[in-house]
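Appendix B. Raw example, untouched.
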Amino acid sequence: MRVMGVDPGLTRCGLSVVESGRGRSVVALDVDVVRTSSDDTLPQRLLAISDAVEYWLDTHRPDVIAIERVFSQHNVSTVMDTAQAGGVVALAAARRGIDVHFHTPSEVKAAVTGNGAADKAQVTEMVTRFLTLQAKPTPADAADALALAICHCWRAPMLVRMAAAEALAAQQLRSYRAKLVAQAKAAQAGRDDDLLGSR
């Protein structure tokens, strides 16, 4: 499975592509950070991110995209910037029919370090180890993009099982409700027959 990890941001947007192998084996194929200038207008900055993402999708052809879920932060403008950058990526993926999954920062940290409250240095260190990189990926946005891709590789089997379980539960619920409706109709028909018979 080829996964593109995206650490969305308006000033710096981390992009990575990894490929999962057997077990927890993951190989890094590419990583970079798209930078935009605060001197440019918002549409220009989003276009720059969009162009880079389109190029990556055409070049690497990922099977799935893992994007960091926008989380509540103290700085509302930062949340908006992150959400807009993530939206550009999700839109590009949707145009190509590529599945998109969102992971929270704590899910990513827990997956790669075992600690949902790990700091950026710990995440970078573990990403470097897991991928046997010769140098630590910099800036942190690059390491975060790789961590997102790794997280999805390791969580994907569980996500598939959960989706299958949810689908089965929904099907069973529909069958149960249909059975209840049928029983209610049969009971009503029986009462109607009794009423007619008593006349």
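End of appendix B.
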